[in-house]
Amino acid sequence: MKEFRMLMICALIIAVGVAYLAIAQNYQPAGDKWITKWWALDGPITNTGGFNASAAHDWLDEGTGGKLTQESVSKDLDGLAKTYGTKVNLPKNGGELGWTVITIDPND
Question: Do 49 and 91 reside in the same domain of the chain?
Fold first, then answer.
């Protein structure tokens, strides 16, 4: 009986923890704690066929002839620094794109 009671207490603790995390996901407030400034391409990549068709495609690799890749610019500060002054040339998918700081409103 004592073992069953301990098992039930453990199960209840786990259930409460999981429920708290699920609720916290839904009620996380936006505002000052969110990053609003992002280094990004200065225009959209267009005519991609949608997310499912293009998610695995490395547009940076294609547009820079391999000089930049999604992985290389995301890996560390050196990779990020390589974006400065490097154009991404995608004639059929947005043209020649540069880099700029964009603002994302977390309340939108």
Answer: yes
